[in-house]
Structure formats: structure tokens, C-alpha cells
Batch of 2 targets.
Target 1
Amino acid sequence: MPSQPAGAPPGVDQGGSGAEGGAEGVSGPELARAVVDAALAKRRAAAQSPRRRGNGGETGRRLRGYSGPGPDPRDPQLFGAVLDRLMKARGWEKPKAEATVFGAWERVVGPDIAKHSRPVKLDGGVLTVEAESTAWATQLRLLAATLLRNIASEVGHNVVTKLNIHGPAAPSWTRGPRRVQGRGPRDTYG
């Protein structure tokens, strides 16, 4: 096959065999028509072939870029949405939910219960709650199922699976050089 001159369009043979035009020395309007026909044939062939991902192959243009209508990952994002994606990507949902139990205790259980109790420790799904008196500890034990349901609706399921409710911590009289063995105080100061 003879080589093509440097400026000749593909598909147009200027060597004289006349594959496209059929005549030697095609010039003027015939040459323009041959160039247009060759470009259209190349375009039809490219449209029928499966497209490759990337920059579009031979043409040097992108097939499907970020320009145009619709959402784009480069668009400005809401801070909360970006933070939620980061929390999911790093696996921080459970620590966040556990922190919400302590940080938003009043919102989680309600203002009345929050006034008389406080969360102390969350370990392995067991939340330890300290009530301000033994009477409130008894009330909270009776409301344990409702509290677990409220906590689950606020922070998610399986964050808190069990409640350990106790009354106020009584002071210890076991310190000091002199002490008497015995049962100790009988009241919880509540």
C-alpha cells in the first residue's frame, strides 16, 4: 500500500490508485466532498464501536465529564452531609451514638427524668444510670423499657441494650484509723 502525503486526509488517496474518488489528481470541490465523506464514515464507525472509559481514546476529548446539568461531586456540599459521609467512611457511627447518650441526655430521656438522673457509664451496651434518690431509682427501673425505647429512637438500635439503674452513691465511712465494724448507715440520703 502506498504511503499517504503528510497533509492528506485519511481515506483519500492522492497517489493515483483512486480508492475513494476513482480519479487521479482530485482537487477543488471533489476533494472537499471526499474529506467530508471520510470524516462522516469515521464518525459512523466510532458510534458503532463500544465506547471506552477514560478520555475518549483517539479523539482526545472526554466522553462524559462533569460538565452539564445534574449533581457533581465538585459542587459545594452541606457541612452536615460531608460530616455524615466521613463518619460512615471511618466507622464512627457507634462512638457518635454513644456520645449522644451522654451529651444530649435531656433530649434523649426528657427534661423531667434528666433532672433527677444522669448517665454514668456505657460499657458493652449496658448503660449505668445514677438516680438522685432511691425513690427515683425505683421509678426509673419501672420505666426501663420506655427509656430503652426512647434511647433507641434517638441514637439507634443496639447502642444501649440494657439499663443498670442505681441510687445515689453513699459516702464511705471505711476510711480512717478508727472505725467500728457493723452494718453502717441505713439511709441513702434521698
Target 2
Amino acid sequence: MEHAISLSLTTAAAQPASADVVIVGGGAIGVSIAWHLASQGVRNIVVVEKGQIGKGSSAKPLGGVRANFSDPSNIVLGQRSLKKFANFQQDFGIDIGLKRVGYLFLARDSAEADSLVNSTAVQNEMDVNSRIVTPREAAELNPFLNPDALMCAAFSPEDGYAQPAKVVEGYVRAAEELGVTFLNCTEVLSIDTQDGAVTAVTTTRGTIKTNALFNCAGAWGGTVSAMLGVNMPIEPVRRMIGFTPTAPADKPHPTVPFTLDLSTTMYFHNAGDALLLGISHDQDPCYHREFDFCWLNEFNDAAAVIAPSLANPTIECGWAGLYENTPDHDAFIGRSHHISNYFYATGFSGHGFLQSPAVGELMADLYLDRESFMDPLPFSLERLNAPALTRREVNII
């Protein structure tokens, strides 16, 4: 199941010979950066996408939006993005289907419970509306749950989900109006440098001379970075979701929060009159994006304990996409210390869509060399060799 993005883009569009900025990757992160740059007066921007704009991981039917992370930097990106999502229809004229049904993280042992308590305390200090709830309260919020399997849960009522494809569409349409060029079916083959700066990008259509390069290539971010001799460890991992049939009108599903089990990574929430079901199925890194049912056994085992009525579901359709996992499951966001005009925002490990509005703003500020709402240092590539910057997000699946 995918939401089509109907844009004026065409594979026949001419690739310009030069650009002030080249952005590699036409997903939520890349198009957000393109619009934020253009809205601040940056001109001659080209976005190149090896497939179709917004048809990679950003084509998924629903994506979670939240601020209930454990790490303060992720909380800031989530908070700021939530505000932008809330105003998206007013700002861009597109209904992104934002449903603020809340997030519900489940803990089934003392270690998970302690983690949620600590994370919630950090969130509350940063004005995130979240709280710890008892197993009984969790089951009241989500009647599918078996409270006897839980130790506690964390609930953040202002979080929820939206339609990534609609967000991409809004940014692209607005960016096109400001003169941004979007190129489908355009793969980067090589990147030229001189005196420590990017000078040109060669694609399957030819060469673009440029003054700046943004790597927003998602699961291919490491490949793009390698063209510059920069090691950026990103593993592509296939993730799948399934959708149940539409519930009958006389027996609708209850409206539930976006619910995630920390022990098994099982998750589910409403998808219109159906349910979206998933689990972070363990598999080797790959670029394979075909949907199959190999994850169902793991989902059924988890559901049998957490939400018994969801075990052995009928799956009417499904979707597969790529996570872009980094070693610590946090994004790489920043400006290269070695190549002066090389910027990167990739490796979001499943959080790219939900952080894309804030990241677009942050990267535009970084390019324009001005103070932003936060320091991107915690997300810099250099953190991997700097113990003082080491941290690990725990509110993930």
C-alpha cells in the first residue's frame, strides 16, 4: 500500500550544468532541506533522486510523529517537528492526515520500566507531555492489550502519526514554486573535489558543477559518502508492515495510541478502519524491498502475549521499506570537517520522516552559517570517535 505523489516532475526534465546546491536524495529529509533553503533565499537548488521523488521509505502510508525519545537532542528535533506538522496544512495547503492519538511504549520487565521512567523524566524536564501509566491504565488506553503481561507503560498523548507522502508533496510543490529543480531517475555516479571542496557531481545524465553538496540519500548515504572518501557506517535493513482488512461498520476497531512493545519491537495502531501491524523482524542488511510474510511468526509470538486478539491476523496488503541504521541508531547530521561544502543528513534509523521538518530548518541554518535552534554537534559523524559525544537512544524499535 502506497500513497501516490502527484507532482509536475518528469524524467524528461533537463539536468542543469551547474547549481549552487545539489541535494542527493528525494525523500522527506531531502525535500524538507530543499524547501527550507529556498524559503531563505537560496537559489539554483537541484534535488537528484535515483528512483522517484518521495517513493522510497517516504512512500509508506503512515509514519509516526513523536517527541517521546530518551535523548535530549532527539526530543528537540521531535518537538520542533511536531509543531511544524501541526501547522502544515495552514502553511502548505495540504492535509497530511495528522492523528494525535498518542504513543504508548510498553515495558515488561524492570529494566524496561526503569528506562521508560528515566526517559519520561527527561521529556517532562523539556516540557514534553508524557507520563508513566499502570498496566490497567495502558489497557484502558488500548483495549487490545493484556495488562497482565505489562509492568508499566509510557504515554505521550500529543504524539501520533501522519502521511509521509503528503508531507513530501507539500514540500516539493512549495519548493518548485521557489524554483527548485527535482530530477527523478537520476543516480549519482561520482563526485569531484578540489582543494578540499566538492566541485561537481556526475549523474547518469551528466555532470553538474556545484558549490555545495547535501547527502540525504538515506540507506544509500554511506555509498554517497564513500565517493568522497568519507566513511559513514549505514546499514540498509528491510522493514515490513501489514494491514488488516477494514473492520465492519457495526464492529469498528477502537481508536488506540501508536503502541510499541520494547521487549519484542512489535507495534500497531489504527490505519483508517483497518489496523497497521509490524515488528522489527531480524534479518541481514540488504537493499531488498519486496514485501513478504517472513515477519509474521515473530509478530504472532509477540501478540500472543501482549495483545492476544491480534495474533494470527488476516493481512490484506503490506509494504516494505528500508531503515538506514547507524551504529548507535542516531542520525548523522552536520557539515564535514574535511570537505568544506559537504553537508549530510542521513542514517536516521527509522526517524527521518518524523524529524524532517526540524532537520530541514537546522540544515538550512548550517548552510547559511547562522545560529539555529540547536547545535547539531551531537549528531556529527565525528561522534563515533569521540566518547564524550557517545549516547544511545533507547525509545526505538
